[in-house]
Amino acid sequence: MTTLPTPPAPIPAGTGRPAPAPAAPHGHPAIRGAILGNYVDQFDIFLPVIALAPAAAHLYGTQNAAAAAGFIFIATLLGRPVGAAVFGPLADRIGRTRTTRISIVGVALATLLIGVVPAGFGQATLLAIIVLRFFGGAFIGGGYTAAVPLAMEWAPNPRRGLVSGQIMSMSPWANASIAALVFVLLSVLGPDAYAQWAWRIPFLLGAAMTFALYLYYRRRVRDCPLPARPRAASRPLREVFTGRGGLALAQLFVLMTGLWLFTNMAVVVLAGQLKATAGLDDKAISLTMFCATVVSALAMVASGHLSTGTGRRRFFLWFGPASALLAPATYLWIFHAGPLAAVMLLVGLLQVLTVSAYGPIGAYLTERFPAGARSTGYGLAYSLSIVLPALYPYYLPPLQRAFGAVPAVAGLLALAGLCVVAGALADRAPGLPEPAER
Length: 438
Known about the structure:
Growth Hormone, Chain: A
């Protein structure tokens, strides 16, 4: 007869520092699944942004290509919080593993269908991709809503921060992988062949990886046997949006808004300004951002592990002020650095001062909600906060006209750091449960 492993100590919902417990290897399949799953999810998220750009003219015409890319991005953006709202409560009721498998199948199908969508039909092709991206975004939102809390529930207490950092670091690795794949396809096949048919290869590869992930979850992963499982009649959405859950969600919304603002300013906007303002060519920018991606991935793992020793709240309390002061100064320095090697060094430093803060997020968001609403709380806290930072194309240009192209971005980096520290300070606001109660 097979003996089930002893589960790790339950997560004390909302604690800044996990309670000590002996490290154990239990739950490795769920942990590995979350790490691989986040890589696959992020691969699918970045695919339309990177893989479709060189083929945009062939797919839906040369006019309004930038607007088309924006519509595709917004569709994904809107789909993710919708998916969190649908699949989070489902995971809290029927189980995280079962919900993860459902969401994986949805992501795989949406990605596969984009890979075979008929090209050259202008607005019809664009509309088909937008619709598929919305549904793909919803299933992606459902995937991390279930898989990350499941991994945290299986992770031994002393390793939760490290596991969180490993999961979060898959985002830059996925971004780098797609960029490298598209670069190779363009170099080997040429721009014309890529635009005609080779753009489908990354999508078909993404679908294949997602189906493989489904088989892994089906065969290897199961729910953690927590001492107290959610009640069948529980209402996770009500628990997250009202009372103490609502206060926790508001606090995390502020903190996560700062982190998403870091992402947009220190990655997306920076890449454009390196060309427009610093005068770097495409090859130099690609090399610089690739090296920065490696730095950010390693820094996320390190910061996640560090948060176990410091406590999650304390980590953000010192990271927020440090980033609010140092990230803007580093950003300004990048455009006066001179040699490419100095620019690359400063861009890498900027990643450490900004997006490395994602490292503890998997653990921190999971620990802020009780088991009965954990997936719902995690998904909504992570997804709803994407929206305001993602609207930067509307509010950044006026700020740049008023304060200058580079100083305006530096100012938003300072605001992002202040949001992080404000969110961390609100962790102890009146009305929120004390760590011992959570």
